[in-house]
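Hi! If you just cloned this repository, the fastest way to understand the data is to look at a raw example. We've pasted two of them here, unedited. The first protein comes first, obviously.
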Amino acid sequence: MKRIDIYTIDIGGGHIAPAMALKEQFDILGRKDLDVRVVNLGIVLRMSFLRHLYKYYWDKALRYPPLINAFYRGADNPYFMKIIDRFMGVSALPRFVAYLEREKPDLVVSTYFTFTHFLELLKRAGQLSAATVVLNPEPFDSHHIWFSHSFDWSMVFSEKSREEIVAKGFAARKVRAFPFPIKPSFSRRTQSKTTLRKSLHLAQKPFTVLFFFGAEGVGPVNKFISTLVERKCAMQVVIICGRNEQLRSEMESLASGSHGRLTIAVRGYVTNLADYISASDVVVGKSGPNQVFETLLQRRPIIISSFLANEKETTSWVMRNHVGWLTRSSGHLATLLEKLAEHPTILRQYEKNIVALKLRTGAPEICDFLLDVLKAKRPARKRTMGEAIRHMKERMVEEGEAMTRRRVKNVATRQKRRRARSRGKLAARTARTAALKAKRPKAAASGGISAAKKKSGTSGPGRPRRAKD
């Protein structure tokens, strides 16, 4: 029996959702000769400190986007995060080696950069015989952090992402583009809105807005709902709070009051999110790729209220294709929702735009691809521990030298630019001086010093010429 491991971690839903989509698709195939597992290495490798640190950072980043926005672009180089991951993963690497020795996967898929860096190190040291595949969860952005030259394949979810990572020096033949993978259980609902609302215990007729900000329920829900309450908007609002129990308590308290023609329905963590999306007229949330594609697959427009640096390109894609809107203030959101409620033709046009995209899940194609990789896998010669340590040292020295070369090159480039700017400024000053001289009238043409004045010993009106000694 062949074994496929999909490595992920429970920090946000962006890494887990694609992994679960592939797992569900493999289960549908029903291959008896195949064992596919989604492995949360944060738990399996007992990486408690790293896991809690990343969770703390991600929670703060969701609440204060500048934290991740400042970090994201600065980390877009092939060395920065590798050094951090190797330093913080010193205790986890031996456990990872033991896990691989015990489980012996034939193919590994990494959905998280830390595990990609761990696997890269083990692969370069000759301690990993499995075929290796990177899954980049950002559909329109190819950040260096997700990829490794040592891996056999890299999977991306748009041609833009593929072109970007190839431009960064990765071999084009090792990069494959697929449609974004969505869980088969999220397939498009065919029931009418009325039928779905009835089954979900919602009012059947009003204009319905779904607020959903990921499994953790972190987003500006309070201020949005407060503005809708103040305006007494005529609509039905459904709030999915996820695991955020504090938000659920606050929203349930708010929903218990009377707000005119505005009704509020509150839910916690749900497993039938696709039903709620399809039962709504429009969805409000952040531009995480999973939420965007899951919403559009149900042919519902999305209103993006916020996005992080890694979600900027997804937001641009939504706006460019006219399948959603971007709003940053509660007042603007309330005005937009009132406009959509009064003019249903706008929503119908956006739904037509979604249909024109012909979106589909890439899970079946990716599973077929992974099976082909598994068939083509060749047995690798495994080094002895002594050879592995020597090889690892050599690789680390090579990477250190590469970093030094890059730093020297950057310094030289900056110096070259400074010299070029200095030459440019000097040339500009010279040109200005020459221009000024050219504008001055010549002495002969402007009645300069006459021969008579020279003879009389004066150099100008009222100026006696200095006598020679």
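Ok, and the second one:
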Amino acid sequence: MGLFNFSTPKPRQFNYRPLYYDERKERLEKMKAQAEAEVALEKKAANYIGLQKGFLTDRRAKSKKNYASHKKASALRFLIILIAILGILYFIAPELFLAFWKTK
């Protein structure tokens, strides 16, 4: 009765057939997808600036501006740290600090 039956039943197949199929709509969707892919490739190519004329000179100018701004920031940071150290020395040992600046 199935005591020694080792075969397993196969699953039922799903076979769905739509009642209405619009071939024109599917062709339009494929065409839209292709057009969007082409536009994406064109945008990607337009954003690539490695081969444009003047690319290296623009990069050099930006680099010089960044260097100048970092140099100014570094000088300002140095002055702030120097003032902070002098202030700490004044609060720790004001007599030494004032003796150094006095002229006789």
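That's it. A detail worth noticing about the second one: The helical segments are 23-47, 55-92, 94-101.
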